[in-house]
Every structure is written in C-alpha cells, then in structure tokens.
Amino acid sequence: MSDLLLLRADGGARLGFGHVMRSLALAEAWQRSGGHALFAMAESAPSLESRLCAHGIEIARLDVEPGSSEDAKQTSALALDRRAAWVAADGYGFGAEWQSAVKDAGLRLLLWDDYGHAKSYSADLILNQNLHATAEIYARREPYTRLLLGARYAQLRGEFLVWRDWRREIPPVATRVLVTMGGADAENVTGEVVQALASLHNVEAVVVAGASNPHINQLHADVAAQSNLRLVVDAPDMPERMAWADIAVSAGGSTCLELAFMGLPTVVVPFAANQELAAEALGGSGLAIAIKPGTEGRKVRLASAIHALYSASEERRVTMSAGLRHLVDGRGAERVLRLLQAVKVSLRRVAQEDCTLLWQWANDPATRSWSFCSDPIPWNDHVRWFQSKCGKTENLWYLACDAASRPVGQVRIDLESEHTGTINFSVAPEHRGNGLGTSLLCAALEQLFTATAVNLVRALVKAGNTASVRSFERAGFKQIPVELAPSDPALQFIFSAGEF
Questions:
Q1: What angle do CA 155, 156, 157 make, to 5 degrees?
Q2: Of 1, 29, 216, 421, whose Cβ has the fewest other Cβ atoms within 10 Å?
Q3: H-only helix segments in 105-143
Q4: Sheet strands (E) in 242-342
C-alpha cells in the first residue's frame, strides 16, 4: 500500500484554522506509523503553513475555488500522480459532486463532516467527531460508506497525547481563565469576552488569538487596559495553557474536544452555524455551559455564562472535569488510522469445503515455525479438529477474501464466556507482507463487537513472531503480562470493545 496520505483542507482569516488543525492530528498519526503526509491547500495563511512545515508536512497549493469541480479534478490528479493511499478532506465545500468526482477517479476518500452539509455521500469513511453525531444525518449515503461518529474519534495532535495520563486538580475557587476563540474570529467575539472578564474579581486570564485575527490590534489595546489579562498570539503550547487554567471560554469548534481531553470546564460560544449543534450537545450534557447562538444580546449572555462557571462550586467543576475527560480519551486518531491502513477484506463463515485449504495453510513451514506446536499436522488430526470447530456457536471462524473474492487468510475467535474470547489469525502464504494481518483483525473485531456481547478479546503470540506482534499492535491491541503461558516464551495482547 502507498505510504502517502493526501489531506485536502484550507485555513486562513476567512475560514479559520480548525479544519487544518484536526487534519494535522491525523497527518501526525499517519507519519508516526511510517507514512508521509501531504496537504493540498487552496487557501491558507503563512503562520499556518509554518506550523505544518514544522511538523514535517509537505504542502501543495491548488489554484481553485474550494469545493468546485476544478478542485475535485486537481485534487484527484495530485492524489493519482503521488499514488496516495487515501484522500482525507475537511471542509464544508466538499459536497456530493466533489465526493463523486474523487471516487470516480478510483481514490479512497475520508470526509470530515460536522452536520450533514452535503445532499448525499459517497466517501468511504465519514468522520463526525462531535457529541451530536448520529447516523440519521447521513441517511443518503452509499452502502459501502462507513460512519465514524462521536467523540471517541476526536482527532488530537501529538502535543496533547503526552498528557493522556495527567490528572487535573480542581481548586476550591476558579481564578485562572483561558480564552480561545480560534485562529480567525472575524466577529471579534474575543473582544466581547475580554469585556465580560472585567466584571470578575481576583482572576488571571490568558487570551489566545491567531496572528490572522483581523482585530489583533484592538485586542492588544483591550487586553492592555486590564492588568490581570495577557494576550498570547499563535500560542505554540495550548496543552500547557489548558493545564494552567481553571476554566475556559472557547468557540464551539474542535478546540472544545481538546479542552474536554484536558478536563477543563468551559463556556462554549457558538459563533458559526456549524458550531451550534456541537455547543448545544455539550451544554445539554451538563459538561459545559453553552450560550445560545446569535449576535443580539450576546455580550450579556457571555457575561452571565462566564460568571456562572466562575462561581460554580468545586463539586460541580470536579464533576464536569471528570465527565469531559471520559468523553475524549485521546485515541481517536489511532482508531481512524487502523481503518485507513487496513487492506479491504470481506469475511464469511468458514464452511466444510474450506477444510483442505486451511490444512494447507496450517502446514505452511512459516506458519508451523511460529506456532506453539511446530510439528506438521497429520490430515486425520486436522479433520477431527476442524469438525470440532467449524459451525459451532462457541467458535466464530471466518475466511477472509480480498476484492477479487480470493481467500487471503482466516481468523477465529473462541468464546470463553459471554463477554470474553481468544483470537488467532493467519495470512495465506502468498499474501503475506501486505498488511493483511491488521485488516483481518480489524474486520473480525468489528463483526464481533457488532454481533455479540463480547467486550474483551485476548491473544497469545509466540515470542519472536514479529509479524503477528506488529499486526496486533497496529490493530490496537495492548500488550499485558502473560498469565498462563505455554512452554515457549509468549506475549499476551488484549483488546476491549471500548477501544474500537
């Protein structure tokens, strides 16, 4: 498979930085796995491009109207020329015609979509990482389109992931406020927040703004008028800023998910139509205070909401923080990456006519060498064992086939109880080295967690079997100490349904 991920996203004074920043999170995950990321951009800003370059991201500029037919044409041509494995598009201009043109070019497409903006969908994957995401939003989609919905798919940049094990301490009184309204903020909502902060006593506030903010000079003046406020432009250390603060005031975009990961109680201010549903869902959950959208009377609503959170009891802020942290676990990019890197396979239940093929695969010399019992398997022994497994309710056994319906491997889950199982797999000798092990595991886990009550899967791998270890790790399994190991040294892996 190609190692290139082409990301189509724009950002700047008109569009804001949010689409590019969450695309960057996926690009970073792709690069950590050994791939190469290329951003195709029609609109941008120097500060944004500098940030991408600092992460080793290649940039290609498109002279097109975002979302136009020419955009689709140039994006597809670039992806084909560079042999991209996937195109990942983030923006509200990538409608039904744009998606169809990219798919018709023979490309695989992931589309970020926050509220069902297109009249229909033909992307392979649709990613909506918001709390309000539901399948009903995408009723008009192709049968093959898979939906990745909810905050468990929240894309967080690497700078946040190092804080995964950090725990916030909630002070009895909130005195530190972080204000972040995105990279552009054309309406200068930041200025309204600065005015609202003037009514609070004994607080220290950091106001973060983007360099492309058209009101940056006015913000400098407004912040300078309050001695307890400080303005930071293009903050490179947002996780540290969030860790410092006791409460936050934020726009309703993807920054809310970063704040949730950091467990920071927040006033959410939706000042764009695409942010309203996300803000409403967060406010409705009780995990944030969301003001109603609209410019009329917004200053009053802002001041009231900020004061309410500032005055909230320690107990309430503890509850909000814990709920937010539970909402976003920081593994969203890993979950999406597994699907991007998986080779497309289909599963069918193993049948009686597969007995000979599976015996041949099992007796392959490499397969035997990595088995805990390396002796060749006699035919009669195999038949007896096969009959004990095939078609049994306590064994979920699948043959995996590629797009040409050729058998490429097998995966079997032996159910230990209603909620646990043991998984093993093998790839056909002639198809090894193509990443199929991870694909088999991902497909089997999806089938398992969809069709059964199983929520924990175990696997035992012979020490030194680096190919299997790599497959389990890429599929998201975690290594744990071995409890009951065979005579040969072994490694044990687990996967819980909550991680899928």
A1: 125
A2: 1
A3: none
A4: 247-251, 266-269, 289-290
Using CA atoms in the order 65, 67, 68, 73, what is the torsion angle rounded to 10 degrees?
A: 100
Q: How many CB atoms lie within 10 A of CB 254?
A: 26
pLDDT at 486: 63
Residue 298 token pair: 């917004």
Specify whether the CB–CB gap between 110 and 30 falls below 8 A.
no
Query: Per the structure block, which two tokens stand in for 407?
Result: 């058998």
Q: Which of 319, 37, 309 is nearest to 175 (CA)?
A: 309
Report whether 429 contacts 390 (CB < 8 A). Answer: no
Order of strands across the sheet with 58-61? 58-61, 36-41, 4-9, 86-90, 109-112, 125-128, 146-149
pLDDT tens by residue, 122-181 = 999 999 999 889 999 999 999 888 889 999 899 999 999 999 999 999 999 999 999 999
β pairing state of 146-149 and 125-128: parallel
DSSP-derived pairing of the beta strands 58-61 and 247-251: unpaired
Separation CA 425–CA 431 (nearest Å): 13
Helix (H, G, I), strand (E, B) or coil at 125: strand
**Other C-beta atoms within 10 Å of 343: how many?**
19
Structural domains of the chain in order of their starting residue, each with its CATH number: 4-149 (3.40.50.11190), 160-327 (3.40.50.2000), 342-499 (3.40.630.30)
**How far apart are the C-alpha atoms of 150 and 129, rounded to whole Å?**
4
Segments of 351-432 assigned E as strands:
395-401, 407-415, 420-427
- Are 2 and 84 within 8 A, CB to CB? yes
Angle ∠(175,176,177) on CA atoms, nearest 5: 120
* Strand boundaries in 281-354, DSSP class E: 289-290, 346-349
